[in-house]
Amino acid sequence: MIAIYPGSFDPVTLGHLDIIQRSARLFDHVVVAVLRNPNKTPLFTVQQRLEQIRLSTKHLPNVEADAFDGLTVNYAKMRQAQVLLRGLRAISDFEVELQMAHTNKTLSTQIETVFLATSNEYSFLSSSVVKEIARFGGSVDHLVPAHVALNIYQCYAHKNTTSNQTTQTGKTPPHKSSSMESPPEKIGEQEA
Ligand code: PNS
């Protein structure tokens, strides 16, 4: 059975990886599907997020990372998947996730949503929390894989450098050629 684990993964956290590892034992194949979302200003490009996920899951032969546009159920059908996988951290997630599962059911009766309870130690963890900590100079080493933590530190160091230059000159410096997108100015709604 093929399962799709859709999300923003901006960036992938140890909480996501907990769900991915456990689902890899339950399903024949797990596709971690990164949504190309034009409505969000991400910290990392889709390509960077795919690389972060691939590096973090290279020990799991039945896990792949892919990007998609549009409706998740359409992508699931295209991949011949039967299951949409989502992690549940707390009751607060449940309301949103249940609504999403019901909505997806109206779009396709063939695809089932399966919820995995996040392991206790990650019940507080979200990509937004990681970005918030890093933005204010805190360590995220215990929340994301080491290579992702490095990407995050580099991203915020770049942002701090450019904003210091802005303060000193009163002008915004030209955007450095970099594959990083500009970090969002504010952390938006809570992401998984
Ligand atoms: O990690 P996130 O941001 O909580 O993931 C949300 C995601 C990508 C699973 C959800 O927004 C989604 O499925 N978007 C695709 C559009 C869609 O299918 N909408 C109908 C279901 S509400």
Number of domains: 2
Our Rg estimate from Cα atoms comes to: 17 Å
The unique ligands bound to this protein are: 4'-phosphopantetheine
Low-confidence runs? 169-189
CATH topology of the largest domain: the name is Rossmann fold
- Report the biggest beta sheet as strand number plus sense, adding barrel if it closes: 5 strands, parallel
CATH superfamily of the largest domain: HUPs
List the helices and strands and how they pair.
Blueprint: E1 2-7, H1 14-26, E2 29-35, H2 46-56, E3 63-68, H3 72-78, E4 83-88, H4 91-107, E5 112-117, H5 127-135, H6 146-169
Parallel strand pairs: 1-2, 1-4, 2-3, 4-5
Bound molecules: 4'-phosphopantetheine.
4'-phosphopantetheine (PNS) is lined by residues 6-8, 35, 71-72, 100, 103-104, 191-192.
What would you note in describing this structure?
The relative contact order is 0.19. The protein is globular and about 55 Å long. The chain has helices spanning about 15-25, 45-55, 70-80, 90-105, 125-135, 145-170, and strands spanning about 1-5, 30-35, 65-70, 85-90, 110-115. It has six helices and five strands. The longest helix is centred in the C-terminal third of the chain and has 24 residues, at about 145-170. By secondary structure, it is of the alpha/beta class. It folds into two domains: about 1-120, Rossmann fold (3-Layer(aba) Sandwich), CATH 3.40.50; about 125-170, no CATH class. Strands 3-2-1-4-5 form a five-stranded parallel sheet, sandwiched between helices. Residues about 170-190 have low confidence and may be disordered.
